[in-house]
Design brief:
Elements: H1 6-17, H2 19-41, H3 61-76, E1 92-98, H4 107-115, H5 120-124, E2 126-132, H6 146-151, E3 154-156, H7 162-173, H8 177-195, E4 200-204, E5 208-210, H9 214-227, E6 237-241, H10 256-259, H11 261-282, H12 293-314, H13 316-319, E7 325-327, E8 337-341, H14 345-355, H15 360-371, E9 374-378, E10 383-385, H16 396-401, H17 412-426
Helix pairs in contact: 1-2, 2-12, 3-4, 8-14, 9-17, 11-12, 14-15
């Protein structure tokens, strides 16, 4: 084993004793400490340098919520179950379309988690409708299940003419998901518009789980949006998204300082240099110690760039708070849970019917782009996509990409406490 020469050892010892050495040592220790700690705290952000695939797709809070949903289903299955239903004037019409999947059925857990934990007053605020979107609805295992009859406000198959039903069967047989899926989505929105007076419509997919407090957080957000009509952030909004995936929320061209990293480093170094020189000018006693020329150069050329790069390594989702509501005009994915204002229903259904075929979420984004509409989202997803078996023949990796990475980190006790506090504030 080769050992450094005595001269080299002497130089290293002297360097470590110097102010420059202390600065560099502290920089190294702190930077490496963040590197280690980051693996524990920042691993959920899919665009962080600390992101880890280990356990990222594990059902943690989802499993907890699934067990609660099953308890609700058991309670609702009792012959004498007397569950609260929607009032005559609900605030939100919640509509779900479901089809029989080959192996796993998700809709029961979706509805169970939708309703589990709601107070009576909350339950009265929502009207719940399920469309069994198989042309022969009796093939669906949940069709006319007693617990579902007891728990929701309405359920039905297609109520259309024989000619229309034949067209739907053709799409179903030919697995023309782009046509039939769009038809079903439009039918759900139209149902809520024509059969309820609810000022908002929430369209859910059937392979989801909802978190405790989902409703009160949604209502709080809607109150805030409607109370600030002049706020450009909320002007002419198309939907409020309850589910989003952080996969698409990454540092990009819209993030000026990341997109111009060389300029960012230059500004960080030059501003640090100016600040340190001003401090040295004011406190002249530091000139020969921690603010010597070599010390300042060490800070500006090593410490500042190192921590600037570390900032971006930590990841956008870990660093930048989204607030209660944020704009998601770019990077919004999927139609798992979208709330629409009643005033936009005619525009939405007209646009989708005109298109006739396509991915619903993509068409809604196209409509919003063309008409200058804002797309909003809750600061943190209150919905998780749990469907690993696609109803549209999508590959497994595609279904995994539709994942709310921070949903599984929810703490049930904290959520229950939030639920009570927000409900009290809502009145």
């Amino acid at each position: 084993m080769l050992l450094p020469s005595k001269r080299t050892q002497f130089i290293v010892r002297q360097l470590l004793k110097s102010h420059v050495g202390i600065i560099l040592s502290l920089t190294t220790i702190v930077w490496l400490s963040i590197l280690v700690i980051g693996k524990w705290y920042f691993w959920r952000d899919p665009h962080s340098a600390f992101f880890s695939l280990n356990h990222i797709y594990d059902f943690i809070y989802s499993d907890y919520r699934r067990s609660e949903a099953n308890e609700f289903i058991t309670k609702a299955s009792r012959p004498n179950a007397n569950l609260t239903k929607a009032s005559k004037n609900p605030e939100i019409c919640v509509a779900v379309a479901t089809v029989k999947r080959q192996n796993t059925q998700y809709v029961d857990i979706a509805i169970g988690s939708l309703l589990e934990g709601l107070t009576e007053s909350e339950r009265e605020r929502i009207y719940v409708h399920v469309l069994f979107a198989d042309t022969h609805p009796e093939v669906h295992p949940s069709w006319k299940e007693q617990w579902l009859v007891n728990a929701i406000d309405s359920a039905a198959g297609y109520n259309v003419s024989s000619g229309e039903l034949e067209r739907l069967r053709k799409w179903e047989k030919g697995r023309e998901f782009g046509k039939k899926g769009l038809y079903d989505y439009t039918a759900l929105i139209s149902f809520c518009h024509h059969y309820t007076t609810a000022p908002y419509t929430l369209i859910l997919e059937d392979d989801i789980i909802l978190a405790d407090s989902w409703l009160v957080k949604t209502l709080h957000a809607l109150r805030k949006i409607e109370s600030q009509p002049q706020n450009p952030k909320f002007h002419n909004w198309l939907y409020l998204r309850l589910f989003f995936t952080e996969t698409l929320l990454l540092w990009g061209e819209r993030d000026f300082f990341y997109h111009h990293l060389a300029l960012t480093l230059f500004l960080a170094i030059s501003s640090s240099l100016i600040i340190l020189l001003l401090v040295r000018y004011k406190f002249k006693t530091l000139r020969k110690t921690y603010l010597s020329n070599y010390s300042i150069l060490s800070v500006c050329l090593i410490t500042v760039p190192a921590f600037t790069v570390m900032f971006f390594m930590i990841g956008k989702n870990n660093l930048i708070p989204k607030g209660e509501i944020f704009n998601l005009n770019i990077g919004g994915c999927c139609s798992q849970a979208l709330v629409f204002p009643r005033g936009k229903v005619g525009e939405i259904t007209g646009f989708l019917r005109e298109k006739g075929e396509g991915q619903t979420d993509s068409l809604l984004e196209q409509m919003a782009d063309e008409r200058g509409m804002e797309r909003l989202a809750l600061g943190r997803s209150v919905v998780q996509h749990v469907g690993r078996e696609s109803s549209r023949d999508n590959a497994n990796d595609q279904t995994l990409s539709m994942w709310a990475f921070y949903f599984e980190a929810y703490n049930p006790k904290k959520l229950a406490k939030e639920h009570k506090e927000l409900l009290k504030a809502l009145g």
